[in-house]
Structure formats: structure tokens, C-alpha cells
Write a structure and sequence with these properties.
Distance between the termini: 31 Å
Order of helices and strands: EHEHEEEEHEHHHHHEHEHEEHHE
Radius of gyration: 21 Å
Helix content: 25-40%
Number of strands: 12
Largest sheet: 7 strands, mixed
Structural class: alpha+beta
Shape: elongated
Strand content: 15-25%
CATH topology of the largest domain: ph1033 like fold
């Protein structure tokens, strides 16, 4: 796990999903509110970095602390949630977290005099007047001093010890597990023929009919200009795991031809595109590293209307994606 030198500190109000998220080793939130509007507490999911500490609050108690082990990835609402959060959007962000249960879970309301002075001035996860949770908050940024007080009140090990003992589960492993489960569901589906099932599963790896469909729209890598077919991957704009049906997973206008490095960066949310074709780079990586990977084109060309729709719901919604255009450097 990458150790954060300048870590952010977080507090999550799990509400009804605490057990599933702690047992599963992650956080999950929708990307937006149900009306499509942005939400700071959801945007914070994309700001979390490996090594960041997290306080876990549920049922009016702080019961665990955690360490973020990888950056967020686009993922559908976990099956483990069941009927919980029926009003939430089904597409969201998943952040891997290694959780440590507190030896002494506690209610902030019992220690409000100690905690209140350490709460953030705005967007606080709990109320300074009584220590009760802020129902509107999910993932909120907190001062380092508040995290230290949580460790003291919860009789927890030092932050250094918690970091050293963190399980280094990555978003890549979550993606592989999630997509394998989706494949199993497709394999037993009664809605698709055997041929359709085969093509939808092949589409996960950018192969088969999906690749043919993408090649009807794309001829080269948008980011590097490479056109040799053997060096290109048919990459889903809306991730395969987040598509709701076979049509979306096989739709050529929901795809781009990318080199392996560009495909990985796009799928993990390190790059995206504006409707105008401007390349968006995440501040999760140094710009020099993007350049070493061939991400040198500042504009990748125009998109079809159908492609723009998919791009809008992809990783370009991430709060930390910045314009890094020549005229802004």
C-alpha cells in the first residue's frame, strides 16, 4: 500500500450499510444524488487516497477505524446491500478500506465536550451541540486531531500500527471479484441465448462482437494515436461492470480503442474526456508519469452524441479531475 505523506482524514456515517462495508472491506456511495445533483460527501470518495485514515460511525457509535488501500473505482451498488438504499442510484464509487475494530466503541454524544472543538467548521459528520450524526453526511473530511481523539477514546493502537497492519486489498481485486460474479449471473441468465451470453462475457475483455462494434466507430487509440490493431484494446466507456444489460455491454458507441496503459488509466479513473474531446487528467498521478505513459495529446478529437452520453456518466464526474491544457499551465 502506498503510504500517504500528506494524508487526508475521513469520517464515514455508514447508517444502514455498516456491517456490509466493514465485513467487505470497502466504502460505497452513489456518484450523485437521486436527482443527478452533485454531493460533496459523495465527491469525497474520489479524493480519498491510499494511506488515508477513516473513522467508522454507525448506530450512534464509533466502532472501527480504517485505512484506505486504493483509489476509488466506478462500481454498481453492492449486492450485499440488498434492499437497503433503494432510493440510491445504482452506479457509484467503491473505495477499498482495511478496517480495525475499536477495543472500546463509544458514542460521540458521551464525549461531546472533548470532540466538539475538533469538528470541522463546515460539512461536519456529527453535530457539535449534541454529538449526534449528521444525517446528510456520508464521507466527510475531518482534522487529524479529531482522528487522534477517536483513537484515544476508543483505546485503539497508534495510527502507525494500524497502517502497518492494514490488509493491502486493491481496487483491482475488487473489480476482478465483482466482474467474476456478474459473469456467473450472465451464464445462468434465461434472458440470453448461449451465443449472446458468450459475446457479453467476451466483451468484458474487449473481445468478440463488442470489439467489432467499437471498430465501426474507432480506428486508433484516442490518447496515443497508435493504430496497430494488435496493440489496441476495446475499452468500455461506461464500465462493463456498471452496464445494466447486454445491449449496453455490446454497444460499439460505448467503447474506445485504447492502448493497454490508456485502457488501465481510463478504467481506473486516472484519465477521462470532456464532450469537446479534451483529455482530463487526475491529480492522483504526476503529470510527468502521464507523459511517460504516452498521454501527450491534449485533445483526442470529437465524439458521437451516443459516446458523449456514456462519457458524461463515466469517470469525468470525479471531483479531482483537472484541466491540464497547454493554455492553463
Amino acid at each position: 500500500m502506498q503510504e500517504a505523506t500528506l494524508a487526508n482524514y475521513w469520517w464515514v456515517n455508514h447508517k444502514q450499510t455498516a456491517r456490509m462495508e466493514r465485513d467487505g472491506g470497502y466504502l460505497w456511495s452513489p456518484r450523485t444524488k437521486i436527482n443527478g445533483h452533485r454531493n460533496l460527501f459523495y465527491d469525497n470518495m474520489r479524493r480519498a487516497r491510499p494511506g488515508d485514515p477513516v473513522v467508522s460511525y454507525a448506530d450512534a457509535k464509533v466502532g472501527a477505524v480504517g485505512i484506505v488501500t486504493d483509489v476509488a473505482v466506478a462500481a454498481p451498488k453492492p449486492e450485499a446491500f440488498g434492499l437497503r438504499g433503494e432510493h440510491w442510484a445504482t452506479e457509484g464509487w467503491l473505495v477499498p478500506v482495511s478496517w480495525t475494530a475499536l477495543a472500546k466503541p463509544f458514542s460521540p454524544s458521551q464525549y461531546v465536550d472533548d470532540i466538539a472543538p475538533l469538528l470541522p467548521n463546515s460539512h461536519s459528520p456529527i453535530r457539535a451541540v449534541n454529538g449526534h450524526g449528521n444525517q446528510a453526511a456520508y464521507l466527510a473530511e475531518i482534522p487529524a486531531a479529531l482522528f487522534g481523539e477517536v483513537l484515544r477514546l476508543g483505546n485503539a493502537p497508534s495510527l502507525g500500527s494500524i497502517r502497518r497492519n492494514a490488509d493491502e486489498q486493491s481496487a483491482v481485486s475488487f473489480i476482478a471479484q465483482l466482474e467474476a460474479e456478474i459473469e456467473k449471473e450472465i451464464a445462468v441468465s434465461s434472458d440470453l441465448s448461449s451465443t449472446e451470453k458468450e459475446q457479453v462475457i467476451l466483451a468484458r475483455r474487449g473481445q468478440g462482437k463488442f470489439r467489432e462494434n467499437v471498430r465501426a466507430y474507432e480506428t486508433s487509440c484516442r490518447c496515443t494515436g497508435i493504430a496497430m490493431p494488435g496493440l489496441l484494446i476495446a475499452s468500455h466507456i461506461k464500465p462493463w461492470r456498471a452496464c445494466s444489460n447486454a445491449v449496453e455491454r455490446l454497444d460499439g458507441s460505448n467503447g474506445l480503442l485504447l492502448t493497454p496503459s490508456a485502457d488501465y488509466l481510463f478504467d481506473r479513473g486516472f484519465i477521462s474526456f470532456s464532450d469537446a474531446g479534451d483529455l482530463l487528467l487526475s491529480d492522483s498521478m504526476a503529470e510527468t508519469d502521464f507523459m511517460r505513459l504516452g498521454m501527450q495529446q491534449r485533445n483526442v478529437g470529437s465524439f458521437l452524441t451516443t459516446q458523449k452520453g456514456a462519457v458524461r456518466i463515466s469517470v469525468c464526474e470525479a471531483v479531482e479531475l483537472n484541466w491540464l491544457l497547454a493554455d492553463s499551465l
